[in-house]
């Protein structure tokens, strides 16, 4: 996938940020599952957590015993990947703490811009994850999501907004894919074909702490949590996810080159 020239995107982003200043700011750097509930323990065995020391940075998704997908804006100089977690305080056996061998953001992602295009990163684990029923990869979507499709979001992000309240246990919520037109209407000039929106009339949404986590539809990974409104959970402002189907070639080629 070629990288588009950024100049026009920067101009649009600057103008939109000025317009949004009076209506609320964009989500913080580390985008909860609002209007959700505690997941059935280990029902999302591909869910990972990225930690910097004892601080939760982001979510992630296990796609191979050596590889995790997350959002490019989650990149830090040093962090660890936790697998098999449900309660972050109480351990029940399958948890694994893995160091990172390499962080590979998509080459078109621009960390110095407010634009969130190509917000995707591959993380190569230092060592092989021990797989089982509570730690296992998810299959990547081989087709793009359809409007109205039911999906699951999950994470340890804040469960209230704008006040932050981070849960101990993994939370899940059900959302539906929003049509591309409604997605673009919700965020004029900010949504590209490489993004997909999902939400619910109840306000179910991802939020601070959920970035990099999964959007799972019919058992396959369709999206990576990227950005959205602030406060989170506004039904007219669905969450925005990096659309996995647009990046299959890059994911597969990158993994094969570093196998």
From TrEMBL:
Indicate what this protein is called per its UniProt record. Answer: tissue kallikrein
Q: EC?
A: 3.4.21.35
Q: Which GO terms describe its molecular function?
A: serine-type endopeptidase activity
Reply yes or no: does the keyword Protease apply: yes
PROSITE patterns to which the protein is assigned, alphabetical: TRYPSIN_DOM, TRYPSIN_HIS, TRYPSIN_SER
Q: Which InterPro entries match?
A: Peptidase_S1_PA (IPR009003), Peptidase_S1_PA_chymotrypsin (IPR043504), Peptidase_S1A (IPR001314), Trypsin_dom (IPR001254), TRYPSIN_HIS (IPR018114), TRYPSIN_SER (IPR033116)
Q: Which gene encodes it?
A: KLK8
Organism encoding this protein: Sus scrofa
Record-linked Gene3D superfamilies: Trypsin-like serine proteases
Read off the Pfam families from this record: Trypsin (PF00089)
**One GO CC annotation, please?**
extracellular space
Superkingdom of the source species = Eukaryota
Q: Signal sequence: where?
A: 1-23
Q: Which residues form the Peptidase S1 domain?
A: 33-256
Q: Which reaction does it catalyse?
A: Preferential cleavage of Arg-|-Xaa bonds in small molecule substrates. Highly selective action to release kallidin (lysyl-bradykinin) from kininogen involves hydrolysis of Met-|-Xaa or Leu-|-Xaa
Keywords, ordered alphabetically: Disulfide bond, Hydrolase, Protease, Serine protease, Signal, Zymogen
What's the top EC group for this one?
hydrolase
Q: Does the record bear S-adenosyl-L-methionine in its keywords?
A: no
Which family is this protein grouped under? Answer: Belongs to the peptidase S1 family. Snake venom subfamily.
GO aspect biological process, one term? regulation of synapse organization
Q: Which CDD domains match?
A: Tryp_SPc (cd00190)
């Amino acid at each position: 996938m070629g990288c588009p020239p950024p100049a026009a995107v920067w101009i649009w982003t600057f103008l939109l940020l000025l317009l949004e200043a009076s209506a609320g700011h964009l989500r913080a750097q580390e985008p909860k599952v609002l209007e959700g509930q505690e997941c059935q323990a280990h029902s999302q065995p591909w869910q990972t957590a990225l930690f910097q020391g004892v601080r939760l940075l982001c979510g992630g998704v296990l796609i191979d015993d050596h590889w995790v997908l997350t959002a490019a804006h989650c990149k830090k100089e040093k962090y660890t990947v936790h697998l098999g977690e449900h309660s972050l305080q109480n351990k029940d056996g399958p948890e694994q703490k893995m160091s990172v061998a390499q962080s590979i953001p998509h080459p078109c992602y621009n960390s110095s811009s407010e634009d969130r295009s190509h917000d995707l990163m591959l993380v190569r684990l230092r060592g092989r994850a021990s797989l089982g029923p509570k730690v296992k990869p998810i299959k990547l979507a081989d087709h793009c999501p359809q409007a109205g499709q039911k999906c699951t979001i999950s994470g340890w992000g804040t469960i209230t907004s704008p006040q932050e309240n981070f849960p101990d246990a993994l939370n899940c919520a059900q959302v539906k894919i929003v049509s591309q037109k409604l997605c673009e209407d919700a965020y004029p000039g900010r949504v590209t074909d490489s993004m997909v929106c999902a939400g619910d009339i109840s306000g179910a949404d991802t939020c601070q702490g959920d970035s990099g986590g999964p959007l799972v539809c019919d058992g396959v990974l369709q999206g990576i949590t990227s950005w959205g409104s602030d406060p989170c959970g506004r039904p007219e402002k669905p969450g925005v996810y990096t659309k996995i189907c647009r990046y299959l070639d890059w994911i597969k080629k990158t993994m094969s080159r570093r196998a």
